[in-house]
Design a protein that fits this description.
globular, five-stranded mixed sheet
Length: 171
């Protein structure tokens, strides 16, 4: 069984896990021309062994956002979904609150700097991913200095999806 986790944000990515929770493939969406990014994304989807299912983070535009950013968000989301559909990969959607609740169990709860009690999900996710997958970084390129949020989240979405699929198959 292979499960693909997809983070469709502006710095999105996909990660494919096998049944042993090992990373089999990754792809971070580069900056640049959206049409070329979509072609690269499709090429990368076709280059990997076909996943059993894709778990996609179900997120929405933020109320009050500018029209252009809302349009770009929707376009990016749909292009990512279209790639899965064209590749024949079944899709399941999961909201961040659901996958984070399961994956964050037992993890240290960091608070964002400058806030009294707002959880720092990026830091929590990065620490969990680094430890769980036993990798030394989540850098998108050799020139990157900070972990790629999309790769981190996509790997945890895939982990949630894999565990969910294994639970469903036991029923």
């Amino acid at each position: 069984m292979l499960v693909l986790g997809l983070d469709t944000g502006s710095h999105g990515a996909f990660v494919v896990l096998d049944q042993r929770e090992k990373i089999k493939a990754t792809y971070a969406f580069p900056d640049g021309e959206r049409d070329q990014i979509f072609v690269n994304y499709l090429d990368n989807l076709r280059a990997i062994e076909k996943p059993t299912v894709a778990y996609v983070e179900s997120v929405h535009a933020i109320y009050g956002s500018a029209a252009q950013s809302t349009f770009n968000f929707g376009r990016n989301f749909q292009l990512a979904i279209d790639g899965l559909l064209v590749s024949g990969i079944p899709i399941k959607y999961v909201v961040p609150r659901v996958w984070q609740k399961e994956i964050y169990q037992g993890a240290p709860q960091y608070i964002k700097k400058g806030t009294k009690n707002k959880r720092d999900n990026k830091r929590i996710s990065c620490e969990i991913a680094l430890k769980h997958f036993n990798v030394d970084h989540y850098l998108a390129t050799s020139r990157s200095k900070k972990p790629h949020d999309g790769l981190v989240d996509a790997s945890l979405i895939a982990l949630y999806g894999l565990r969910n699929e294994l639970k469903e198959n036991k029923k």
